[in-house]
Amino acid sequence: MEKMFLSMRRGQKNAHLRKILMAMKLTFVLFFIAISQLMASAASSEGPRISLTTETDQTSLGTMNAQPDRTLTGKVTDSSGAPLPGVSVVVKGTTNGVVTDTDGNFTISNLPQNATLQFSFVGMTMQEMAVGNQTSLNIILQEDSIDIDEVVAVGYGVQRRSDVAGSVGIATAEDILRTSSFNALQGLKGKVSGVNIFTNSGNPTGNTRVVIRGINSINTSSNPLYVVDGVQMSDFQFTNPNDIERIEVLKDASAAAIYGARGANGVILVTTKRGGGEGEGTTVSYDGWVSLGRIAKKVDLMNAEEFMEMEEIGFANFGKYPQSMGNVGMTVNRTDPRLFDAQGNPLYDTDWQDEATRDAISNNHQFSIQQQSKGSSVGAFLNYTDQQGIMLNSYMKRLSAKFTYDATPKPWLSTGINLMVSHIWANELDETGGGQTARRTMWEMPPIFPVKFPDGTWVNSQFTGNQLNLGLEAMTNPVHELKTRKMHRFKTKVFGNTSLTFHLADGLDLKTQIGLDANLNKDNNFSPNDLINISSPNGRANISTFDRYYWQEETFLTFNKSIGIHRINALAGLSWSQSTEASTNTGDVSGFSTNFFGYENLGAGTTPSAPSSGWSRWAMNSYFLRGSYTLKDKYLATVTARMDGSSRFGMNNHYGFFPSAALGWIISNEDFLKDSEFINNLKLHASYGRTGSSEIGVYSTLATISSGTVLLNNNRGASTNVARLANPDLEWEKTDQFDVGVNLTVLDNRISLELDYYYKLTSDLLLARPIPYATGFSSVTDNIG
After folding, report:
1. Are strands 49-55 and 281-293 parallel, antiparallel or unpaired?
2. Burial of 557 by CB count in 10 Å (0-12 exposed, 13-18 middle, 19+ buried)?
3. Which of 93, 122, 141 is the last residue of a domain?
4. Of the candidate ranges 350-364, 400-414, 622-636, 756-770, the one whose mean pLDDT is the lowest
5. What's the domain range around 55?
6. Number of domains the chain is built from
7. pLDDT above 50 for 738
């Protein structure tokens, strides 16, 4: 990815902005200018800043305008004037950089026009400086302090970070947006220890997998629980990263046990941005960036002549070793006039990687309005994202809006409303296709074939008829597939909550909130009838939908009080949630005589398959308690208990109990260490707890009935049969975890260390137990191990 930055104050003219956008020939130049003019008229020249950003991992666009003879010298010091050796000095958006010497001096050459330098050093706040026409710079870096008493979310409330006895990781909005990722989870990668993030797809909408402290179950999902503004959320990866204020990751059982049956894989707490700001007034801001993506490294493939040489050697060696394929003919020979000239030279030398991929230009735009007045605040956020895939014709576009309102109409009452709506439309890559995917065939398609013949017909490797003979599997033209196959996905999400908080007494609050997470998904797929693919021989179309509605209501009482050397934090509450899911699938329709209708008219196909539909619902009731105690700012204790009852489990084991306990000792606050100039914070903590998993089928404990057909006396009729054996004793999968760790910050809170040892044991695994076929069933869902 390539990165370019442009920053302008609102009151300034747009000359530089216009110049760059025109040079890039971007079609949305008028959009930027309109936004800039609107903001210029809405605020003074000292208002917020507008940022346009384009990411790069390789070569900067700016280096194309580099001036080889331009050199800059300078010196970097700290706030006391002492020189700083080893400071990284990099031209922003490029790999051009140097490091300061022992006296803090540096010299950097090959500066592009309008260069901006970034100065970074461990324990210091990164600083940026526009070079302009200067030939020397003196930079003063400020210390980057780590606040050990900042407030962190711990589930159903907040605590001082120093009072937390469990293991909690933190990522701020700046951390998440630093990589300019379209995916909120990708922005979290590498920011929190013990959290591994994987992407197993080339699709812009591909699934991102998160694993916190390893995989806990052999059969159920390893995905953590996502709680956004107090409400459980599915498909979190599609959330707009620009809306996120901070993320807390609850890693050990002590921290996650407050979520009981859903906390075995860890919990990710997300706090989104709201209205308000520093002082009363209205703040209007815009942030945008443009990125250029390309393949970092291509596979080294044979050219046309090398391919023919391989073919000829392989054919010449045929028969020298035992064969099971019978008579073999060459895949192609040099007399085919479609592929070779009169002298036998290949007419084409196609680089299929170049043909199937592109330089993908993507962009992101965030427009925010935040208003703060006496007793209330309002926030309105609008985002548009256009992420283009590197593979041809793949993309993901997202339009999202967010609205928040917070007010304190009475001294004893606070209210809050939070609503997010987003819509995604995308064209995905086929990652099944019986192995015939464009990502594979662009490496295997013979280079002697063109993308199209001169008459405009698509070329597929099986046009010669005997490709299997020398191991050259008949395959789909990757460009043909990418340009004509439709895999359109539509996702609409409505998410939000409303809350009332009653301030009953000093430190005593009662909060009740209702939340909704509604997801509407639709997939429209069509493969044209001239696309040679083993899974779609005569064209294929399919339409499927999946809708999920999750409701949640929670009421809880919190108590926070400091009494002399004692600090108490207590929580008691109850929760109810319900999820309803519905799906439909038209079944595959094939046999299309024309591609004109696509998936818009499934009746154009002559060979339909059976449609299907489904509906399910589950519910959960929960009761939870937590108590935290801090003595003399040195000694910490936390006890948590939660009881969950789920409709997923058998009538004999609806409820599960999930407790935890944690102890902590802030050694740095002891008399023998509190005056240390080197150690700022040293805390030991240990915890033990139990969490659970309910990730099984909604009706796995029940005997279910399935429908089918039966043939009797040459007549076909409908039938029903028992499909699954009931197990009323099925119970929760449990994960017990022991954790001990140390947190250390030194050198005026500039360097921090978090070191944890943990041991996890998962029992009562939810698996299918094989049973004798004489029972009429092959297995039953049971607790094993």
Report:
1. parallel
2. middle
3. 141
4. 756-770
5. 3-141
6. 2
7. yes
